[in-house]
């Protein structure tokens, strides 16, 4: 099966559906459009599947029992439909959207609700997650039920007209338009199928001969899981291999959005994939049966997965009053023990969740493909949550490669993105190394833009990336777009250094200046600890209504608090303070791992070094980690010579003059 899309056809269909949403203007608020449109699309698609099943089953029954009357046939087929072993879902009524619409409109709501209520429980759960029964009431109130039913009663949405891949595109294109219409900040970025296909192929999923599991903690409408399974079936050369895929491969997902979850469940029902399970809930928090918000339904260590892939929301907020920080921190000592990122960007929590669910190497190990924006590469200073997570990943030698993708690949954002590839079963040639692949130029223009998506990856571009990932590890392989680094190359020392500033004669400086901080014994003690040298204070103060000047010196080993209190014992009010001290400067230096720190400081600062200290955690010195792919693939481009710029300027000047003369001639 081909994974290509007839995008003009799909875009036309999405536009036709979108027109029906625009008819809701004035009756519904923009953020309510999807609650009307998406459920009716899902219901119509399910209905198309049922109609097709009934027709095929009727022909099958008649072939064996040709003398059945029409009434007997209808009754028998209905009985078969209501048997879950025969049909994955059913409807106890004889209604369709068309027959509901063509019946008496005075009974329209009653008949439509009867039709909705006639679905089997698995479809009813989908309708409930759309909260569609409440929406029906709003459609009736606003006189929109009849127009909507008329719009969709014959729309060709069956699997014979639209594959699961194509229907997934329609869902996601509509969700993109709905989010834009309602002015939402798009935290969800639907993954183009060519990017999913790239991720799936980079994961090198085998045709299994035993149970093999695939997992996505932010499964959206199920696109990644679907493409992974479709790709395996496409690769299977024989019926025996296809049977092994169907028998052994199980896919597992979790989705936070009820709407996306409902769409995903409908797709699974239509495919009748009994080896796929997607749960509703937040995969980043522990599950509490008594909580209103379901948590992780695939908790470790019970659940381990062979392959994992995901495109988690970019910049998702998990802290604050609208977040779930309290619940997530219950896993701080276990799943998130490496660290927790800043509360306004939880992307790395998804990666930690996936890493916690890796199967051990002795059981086959696990591989992960995850899409990030640039933030997880370098956000956070040494010792911060983000840096500590990167340190944990790199020091455990799990990061295998990062692929730099072109910009403008996604529907809701034009930014550059990166595919991280991780595994806990690295072959010897990969050990303690990370490959970077610069694929930013591997794209072609979309014939027509889809939101922010103006570029696409073709089969040739995908093959280019896959070849470099597969062959780039070999000794002697040379390609400017592929670089392999020892993991230590991403490490750095963060050093807090105090040095003695010099004066205009390049001599260690002593300065006298106003003391701008609050003049207290505690602050004087802090200055003493920092300078570890003589400090002289001249204090203008009031004592018993008279002004006086007090001068005192605090030496390195003096009791600073005692000196302060003795000198100002009778002072009622401090008016001003000047102090004389060595001109010490404190700064942070970021030093590449492997450098001699003392030599680096001496060379780079070129001032008398008083002391320095590396960042520590729990009493131990730690390294910071950041990955800056752009730096490694930077190519210097010299500026255009001034002569050429002037020449271009005069050409433009002459062209402008010619245009002005032409305009004057027509005036």
TrEMBL record:
GO MF term set: DNA binding; endonuclease activity; N-methyltransferase activity; site-specific DNA-methyltransferase (adenine-specific) activity
Class of enzymatic activity (EC top level): transferase
Known EC number: 2.1.1.72
InterPro entries linked to this entry: D12N6_MeTrfase_N, DNA_Adenine_Mtase, DNA_methylase_A-5, DNA_methylase_N6_adenine_CS, SAM-dependent_MTases_sf, T1MK-like_N_sf
Keyword tags: Endonuclease, Hydrolase, Methyltransferase, Nuclease, Restriction system, S-adenosyl-L-methionine, Transferase
Mitochondrion among keywords: no
DNA methylase adenine-specific domain ranges (all copies): 167-471
Superkingdom as given in the UniProt entry: Bacteria
Reactions catalysed: a 2'-deoxyadenosine in DNA + S-adenosyl-L-methionine = an N(6)-methyl-2'-deoxyadenosine in DNA + S-adenosyl-L-homocysteine + H(+)
GO term, biological process aspect, one: methylation
Annotated transmembrane regions: none
SUPFAM superfamilies on file: S-adenosyl-L-methionine-dependent methyltransferases
The N6 adenine-specific DNA methyltransferase N-terminal domain, residue ranges: 13-149
Database matches in Pfam families: HsdM_N, N6_Mtase
Family as reported in the entry's similarity comment: Belongs to the N(4)/N(6)-methyltransferase family.
PANTHER family xrefs: SLR6095 PROTEIN (PTHR42933), TYPE I RESTRICTION ENZYME MJAVIII METHYLASE SUBUNIT (PTHR42933:SF3)
Protein's name in the database: site-specific DNA-methyltransferase (adenine-specific)
Species assigned in the record: Candidatus Methylomirabilis limnetica
């Amino acid at each position: 099966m081909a994974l290509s899309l007839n995008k003009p056809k799909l875009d036309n269909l999405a536009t036709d559906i979108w027109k029906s949403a625009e008819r809701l203007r004035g009756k519904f608020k923009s953020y309510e459009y999807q609650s009307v449109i998406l459920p009716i699309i899902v219901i119509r698609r399910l209905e198309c599947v049922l109609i097709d099943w009934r027709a095929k089953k009727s022909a099958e029954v008649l072939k064996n029992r040709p003398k059945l009357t029409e009434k007997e046939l209808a009754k028998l087929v209905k009985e078969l439909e209501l048997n879950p072993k025969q049909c994955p879902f059913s409807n106890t009524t004889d209604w369709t959207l068309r027959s509901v619409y063509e019946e008496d409109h005075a009974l329209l709501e009653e008949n439509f609700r009867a039709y909705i209520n006639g679905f089997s429980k698995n479809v009813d759960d989908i309708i409930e997650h759309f909260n569609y029964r409440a929406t029906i009431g709003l459609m009736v109130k606003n006189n929109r039920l009849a127009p909507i039913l008329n719009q969709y009663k014959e729309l060709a949405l069956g699997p014979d007209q639209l594959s699961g891949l194509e229907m997934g595109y329609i869902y996601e294109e509509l969700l993109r338009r709905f989010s834009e219409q309602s002015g939402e900040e798009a935290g969800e970025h639907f993954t183009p199928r060519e990017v999913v296909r790239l991720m799936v192929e980079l994961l090198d999923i085998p045709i299994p001969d035993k149970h093999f599991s695939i997992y996505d903690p932010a499964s959206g409408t199920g696109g990644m899981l679907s493409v992974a399974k479709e790709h395996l079936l496409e690769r299977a050369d024989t019926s025996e291999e296809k049977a092994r895929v169907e028998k052994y491969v199980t896919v597992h997902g979790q989705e936070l959005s009820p709407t996306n979850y409902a769409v995903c469940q409908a797709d699974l029902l239509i495919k009748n994939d009994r080896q796929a399970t997607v749960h509703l809930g937040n995969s980043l928090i522990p599950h509490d049966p008594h909580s209103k918000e379901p948590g992780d339904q695939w908790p470790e260590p019970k659940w381990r997965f062979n392959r994992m892939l995901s495109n988690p929301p970019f910049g998702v907020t998990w802290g604050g009053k609208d977040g779930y920080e309290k619940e997530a921190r219950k896993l701080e000592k276990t799943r998130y023990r490496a660290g927790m990122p800043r509360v306004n960007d939880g992307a790395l929590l998804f990666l930690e969740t996936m890493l916690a669910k890796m199967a051990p190497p002795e059981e086959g190990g696990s591989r992960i493909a995850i899409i990030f924006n640039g933030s997880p590469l370098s956000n956070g200073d040494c010792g911060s949550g983000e840096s500590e997570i990167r340190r944990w990943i790199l020091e455990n030698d799990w990061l295998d490669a990062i692929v730099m993708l072109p910009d403008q690949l996604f529907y809701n954002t034009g930014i550059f993105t990166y595919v991280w590839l991780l595994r806990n079963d690295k072959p010897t040639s990969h050990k303690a190394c990370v490959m970077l692949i610069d694929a930013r130029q591997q794209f072609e223009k979309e014939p027509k833009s889809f939101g922010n998506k103006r570029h696409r990856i073709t089969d040739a571009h995908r093959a280019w990336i896959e070849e470099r990932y597969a062959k780039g590890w070999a000794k002697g392989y040379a390609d400017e777009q592929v670089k392999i680094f020892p993991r230590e190359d991403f490490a750095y020392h963060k050093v807090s250094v105090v040095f003695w500033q010099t004066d205009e004669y390049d001599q260690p400086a002593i300065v006298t200046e106003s003391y701008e901080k609050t003049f207290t014994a505690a602050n004087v003690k802090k200055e003493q600890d920092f300078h570890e040298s003589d400090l002289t204070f001249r204090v203008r103060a009031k004592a018993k209504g008279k002004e006086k000047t007090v001068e005192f010196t605090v030496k390195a080993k003096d009791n600073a608090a005692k000196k302060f209190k003795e000198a100002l014992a009778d002072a009622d009010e401090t008016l001003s303070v000047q102090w004389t001290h060595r001109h010490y400067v404190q700064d942070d230096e970021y030093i590449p791992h492997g450098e001699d720190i003392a030599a680096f400081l001496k060379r780079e600062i070129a001032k008398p070094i008083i002391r320095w200290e590396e960042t520590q955690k729990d009493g131990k010195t730690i390294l910071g980690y950041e990955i800056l792919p752009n730096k490694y693939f930077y190519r210097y481009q010299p500026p255009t010579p001034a002569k050429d710029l002037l020449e271009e300027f005069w050409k433009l000047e002459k062209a402008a003059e010619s245009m002005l003369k032409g305009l004057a001639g027509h005036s």
